[in-house]
Amino acid sequence: MRSKAMPKPSWNLEYLMWIFTRISGLALILLAVLSISLGLLMGARTQMDLGTLMRWAFFPNSNHVLDSEIPDIFLWANGFWQIMQILVLFFAATHGFNGLRVVVEDYTSPGFWQAALRFIILLLWIFSGLVAIYVILGS
Amino acid sequence: MALNRKVGLIAGAKYKGGGPMLAWALHRISGLGIILFVTTHVIASFSTQQLGSDLGISINIIYESIYFQLFIAFCAIFHGVNGFRIIILDIWPRLIRYQKESTWLEWFVILPIYLLTAFIMIQRFLEG
After folding, report:
1. A98 in helix, strand or coil?
2. Cα–Cα 20 to 30 A to B52, which of A2, A49, B14, B107?
3. Which residues of B touch A (CB under 8 A)?
């Protein structure tokens, strides 16, 4: 029933972020599943309670598993997990602050204040990313 | 987005969108809840870890309370499952015909996960 060809999408910010939101959402689910699976393989099944494993699933930072019975923290705090944390940080922060931008644009009309709020969100994205990288590399 | 719709909160709530509208509204609220929690948590962990100040501890008291945790657990579970539903509907656009049914289906996934989580959390809370 297609009467005419699909219009070719132009790669503007909205279209790009629409795609990115889907991809990063899937990526965050997959990263959480991977963190839970590897955590269970590293002994979380007998050495951790559910809450600690969930903290680890959302963000695989070694500070999240300190109050458990794991014998060796080194397994949970190394370069691999720092890369995983930076991946989670990038996907989550970009997904989240882009979502905040969409919500703000829904409730404001184009003009000075919308541009100002968009700029503040951009600054928040950069600032929280830098702070989180500091925490990741320092822990 | 560029439209100037002038629809108030009460007029918007009267719109009979049903399940998909509830999912849309909750997706928005839960997303904002997660942003609120994650941002405060990053600031709190940075200030305790790097600056050693008491600011992080006072922020911790807010989000370590059982009410905030029950709220944020719902936000995370709902946002994840509903986002997964949106991704599936966007990958296979023909399924949009069953959008209403999909919002019913997602509650059958969300409610058992959330109620079990809430049960464990409240049990732990009452044990102290």
Report:
1. helix
2. A49
3. 1-2, 4, 28, 31-32, 34-35, 38-39, 42-43, 45-46, 49-50, 76, 80, 83-84, 86-87, 90-91, 120-121, 124
- Contacts by residues A9-13 (CB-CB < 8 Å, ≥ 24 positions apart): none
Predicted-complex ipTM score: 0.85
User: What is the rounded distance in angstroms from the CA atom of residue A63 to the CA atom of residue A61?
Assistant: 5
Pick from B101, B38, B16: nearest CA to A132: B38
**Quick one: DSSP state of residue A41?**
I
Chain-centroid distance, C-alpha A63: 18
Task: For B1-46, write each residue's pLDDT tens digit.
Answer: 455 567 777 777 777 778 888 899 999 999 999 999 998 888 888 8
B106 or B43, which is more confident: B106
